[in-house]
Amino acid sequence: MSHSHCGEGHPRRHESGSATSALRWALLVTSVFLVAEFIGGLWTNSLALLADAGHMLTDAAALALSLFAFWFTRKPATPEKTYGYFRVEILVALVNGTALLAIAGAILWEAYERFWSPPQVKSLEMMAIATAGLAANLLCVRLLHGHHHANLNVRGAFLHVLGDVLGSVAAILAGGAMWLWGAYWADPLVSSLVALLICGSAWRLVSDAVRILLEGTPSHVDLDAMQRELTRVPGVESVHHLHVWTLTSGMHAMTCHAVVEPEGRRDLILQRLRAVSRQQFDVRHTTIQLEEEDQCSEHESLCHNGAMSPRAQVSTLQGASRES
Question: CA of 291: how far to CAs of 3, 156, 274, in Å?
């Protein structure tokens, strides 16, 4: 049996430290302009500004939750939680995505009502406030850019802020249309378009979080290809019980059974199997059980070459039940 970690701790701590600093600054900027846009939305009677302020409120919550997740995941593993608290990051990402969907739904509902009776808006003042909000959002994007690819939780906060950039641009465009042509329907129209964009980003975030929580295979890993590559390692006859999942952003784990030739050097085979997992599939946390053909139980041998047939599955389950 081999259980390898391959020393990922220090780069991850450095990465989380720089991401934490970026999140703190982004939270400060967002909180200040959240208040400004909310007051401005009430003053100008602009749904676009109020929608953007509501979105900034979820931004502030998302950034605060992200900071909380970074702090919480640093807690050491315990006998009750042997993987530590890495999954807190994924839970927070799921909350962020769900909040985005809820905000988008509220914006769409309010926009629908305003389409039928567009109220007058102080368009010039609205554009000024939206321009200031755009500058703040661009600053937050700059702070978070570069951290959102490697961390699902920062990605959630980044998507929140990116949605705010779109919201500010839309508010400026809607304000211009109302100021130049009196087209007050532009306010709910632009708000609806931004809400739909937010829905798309939020759905991807929720889907990724749910896939990780269900321990689905990472999107970058082709399980069949991985099984083939592991089987090609000299001394390996077959690979079965192969499972790959994500612990948290950028940290993937794999377990498998490898049937090896009796005369093979097990230490060298383990080294090569780990190298294939790490170099070709970016899976660094591996647990590999080496066994010879006669060591496999009857029901395990059915799995060597892939999935079992339904009849074989039933037979295996019945056999396991009798043994227990």
Answer: 15, 43, 16
